[in-house]
Amino acid sequence: MCGIAAYLGQRLAVEILMDALRRLEYRGYDSAGIATLEHEKIHCCRAVGTISVLQRKLTDSPIPGSMGIGHTRWATHGSVTELNTHPHFSMNGKFAIVHNGVVENFASIREFLSLQGYVFYSDTDTEALVNLMAYHYAKEPANATKDRFLESVRKSLLHVRGTYGIAVVCQERPREIIGARNSSPLVLGIGKGELFLSSDVASFTAHTRDAVFLNDNELVHIKNDSFAITTLDREEVEAVRQQVDWDTVAAELNGYPHFMLKEIFEQPQALENALRGRIENETATAHFGGLQMTTDELRSINRIIFCACGTAWCACLVAEYLIERFARIPVEVEYASEFRYRNAPLDPKTLVIVISQSGETVDTLAAMREAQRRGTRVLAITNSVGSTIAREANGGIYQHSGPEIGVASTKAFTSQLCIVALLALHLGRLRDLSEAEGMEIIGAFKQLPSQAKSILDQSAHIQTIAARYQNCSDMIFLGRQSMFPVALEGALKLKEISYIHAEGYPAAEMKHGPIALVAPQCPVFCLACGEENIFEKTLSNMQEVRARGARTIVVAREDSPIGATDDVIWIPPAHAVTSSILATIPVQLFAYHMGVLRGCNVDKPRHLAKSVTVE
Ligand code: F6R
């Protein structure tokens, strides 16, 4: 978590860095800070709270300089105080650092340095790291063949167990910045006479689209307007420059009150992007450019393990229903954080697929690496071109959803559902799925964007419903078959956006315990729009909770006979392959309106960050 940025050029560094931090704020927003360097003097400003608090402080006391580093924090070590806010300094004030990640062995580094007389002012792991750099710098002999600044950073990082994306400045090197990464993203932006470092390319695409994505264990040494990349083992690395097509304009609110609402409304477009160029009418199938697997290899797969976290994990559950149903391949779904430490049996006919919007979630990345270490091929479904997961996967599928800024995933989720549905079609057609069934599914995809749009048109209706439930203390989401993951996702969205306790259950499971929670202040949201064969059974489960005093909201296909309910949201009739996508939109809008009605910060819910780069 946390976002880091650095700038070296001719312009006022604070302006560039503040703009970068605003764009990185989704990665953490409990405190922020900037340090600039001018005439061998480091200037610093830090503030607890959002970037706007830091901006007010900087307006009152501006800091000069055309190079500097910045940080927006999601606390890991140490509470949210100004002392724990980055940048952190070495005790002698010579080094300043911003850090995204966790130095797991910071306690032993700190103990070692304390014995050398170092004093610490914060509770952070980062302060141990920056002092270690100062320690090595002091010890490093002045040597014509090795750069003392670079060597002190390199030697310190060789001691570190854990994860980092860092940017460091040294008072005695006024036109230099060193960046490095291990499991936390870091990308270099190359402008005209200026260089940028950031956790996310979106923070500098307004200035340049020329980028170099660093790999783990690489350092970049920026000097004036040139840079050199080396590994921790001092090997030179040839920089691979990429043109980023990320649209910064897409990262603006464009008249919407919140990014979450904007992104919910962008879903018809995101679905079109996910489908574009991937449907083959002639052969009634879908195809993907980047799987890097032959047809024979795909046919030989006899088991798929999906791994992800959070909302992306819910997308994996939908994949299980669709791929088993249409391609008849057994699917297992794992939390990446569990899979990475579990000795799951893997064999050459097993395919692992990871799903990650950011492409940087540390547990998903580690699960992928673990499967690869054991010789298993891993495909990735991700929205982030150039992300670590995208680069390290053996093949993959890009979502093309555009930047998702709201911390709660919305358009990325439905786009993931669309891609796993396309994958089910592709794998199904390589096996027994008939051409007629393939054409039926393609027909469903063609209607999808306009059907999604028609549900968005009901936003005001859903807001009115939300107003009736805004004071509830708990909520239960029910669904069966492919609607069960949507129920889980609905509960997750409501929890994170409105802070209402919510649970998702397979509807028939209620009788096995959770029905004891049912009461008027615990309404039930019922997704009765999935597979036809369980429609009536889902409704019976809804009537069971109504009989015990629950108020109910039901999502159902237009004109279906739903019986008694307090509220209803109709969605267009859809094929099983797309109905989970359509059913998601009402739960997203419901969570959004509940959050807003309850006065919550829906784009930046408390305690959360968009990209989870710590375990
Ligand atoms: C919830 C949410 C998170 C993410 C999870 C994985 O709204 O956004 O649960 O889905 O942190 O993130 P990615 O997909 O970036 O790996």
Which properties best describe this structure?
615 residues; alpha/beta; Rossmann fold; 3 domains; 18 helices; 27 strands; globular; binds fructose -6-phosphate
Provide a concise account of the structure shown.
The protein is 36% helix and 23% strand. With 615 residues, it is an alpha/beta fold. A hairpin with a 4-residue loop joins strand 9 (187-190) and strand 10.
Task: Please provide a written account of the structure.
The chain has 615 residues and is α/β, with parallel strands linked by helices. It folds into three domains: 3-246, Glutamine Phosphoribosylpyrophosphate, subunit 1, domain 1; 253-454, Rossmann fold; 458-615, Rossmann fold (3-Layer(aba) Sandwich), CATH 3.40.50.10490. 36% of the residues lie in helices and 23% in strands. The protein contains 18 helices and 27 strands. The strands form five sheets. Strands 3-2-4-1-10-9-11-15 form an eight-stranded antiparallel sheet, with helices on one face. Helix 3 (106-115) crosses helix 4 (125-139) and helix 9 packs parallel to helix 13 (411-429). The site of fructose -6-phosphate has 15 residues, from helix 9 and helix 16.
